[in-house]
Amino acid sequence: MKATTDLFKGRHYEREIIILCVRWYLRFKLSLRDLVEMMAERGVHIAHTTILRWVQRFAPEFVKRWNRFARPAGRSWRADETYVKLRGRWVYLYRAVDRDGHTVDFRLSEHRDVRAAKAFFRKALRTQGRAPESITLDGYAASHRAVRELPGEDQRWKRTRLRSSKYLNNRIEADHRNVKARLGPMLGFKSLANAATTIAGIELIHRIRKGQFALGGLRVHGQSAPGIWNAVLSA
Asked: Percent of the chain having pLDDT more than 90?
């Protein structure tokens, strides 16, 4: 992993400005032009396309650096899919949280079928490093079939119980709203890759707000957000 100084080397703006713009764009309900105007009032003049490039370039790096301090999610998952607009059409955002509302993982897919559901659960298993004790789904048949077939591919799924409960899945549906509220002002995406990168950044911010990172070793208690971010990225 690159040193923080190398990560921002050659950029025309200071790293604090880049981190601030990316962090604010991922966190708040702002368009790129809203953020350009806000920075201009602070004497910093940036093109909206520059901020967009920063998000695509640095969001994956920020996710990797924060993930070093990630706490594992619980072992009772609530999984569901929602919709994201891509070039005027809908694609599918698979997501899961645990019983306490902590994010397990996400995956963006052009399809909503058994293959897409399996790909999501495989990704979640890689992220968490262990299979859940239970997965709660809504009534969508393809996702149920995917979970039933997973033990045939990987023994780690053997003890995972499959449940169907609309009531228990209210937690994941409420969590969708928090992510989608940020996506609204972005007015859709032009490519699946760019959408996945941006959503990964949004999910990171969402996890930070939920307290899903163990930062005790960095001694950042009581520090402001910029100080915490600098500590994490530099660690």
From this structure: 80
**pTM of the complete model beyond 0.85:** yes
* Pairwise CA distance, residues 91 & 82, whole Å: 8
| Structure tokens belonging to residue 5 | 């100084």
What is the Cα 32 distance to its own chain's centre?
Answer: 19
Taking the CB of residue 93, how many other CB atoms lie within 10 A of it? 23
Per-residue DSSP letters for 175-194?
A: HHHHHHHHHGGGT-BS-HHH
**Burial class (CB within 10 angstroms; exposed 0-12, middle 13-18, buried 19+) of 130:** exposed
- C-alpha span between 192 and 194 (Å, rounded): 6
Closest listed residue to residue 66, CA positions, set 214, 217, 216, 196: 214
- 137: which residues sit within 8 A by CB, 6+ positions away? 79, 80, 143, 144, 147, 162, 163, 164, 169
Cα dist from 235 to 15, 66, 100, 206, 212, whole Å: 15, 10, 28, 21, 17
Strands (E), the chain: 76-86, 89-98, 103-109, 134-137, 161-164
Report in angstroms the alpha-carbon separations of 27 from 31, 144, 183, 225: 11, 33, 10, 12
Q: How would you classify the pairing of strands 76-86 and 89-98?
A: antiparallel
Q: State yes or no: pLDDT of 184 exceeds 90.
A: no
Q: What does the alpha-carbon distance between residue 116 and residue 112 come to, in Å, rounded to a whole number?
A: 6
Mean pLDDT score of the chain:
93
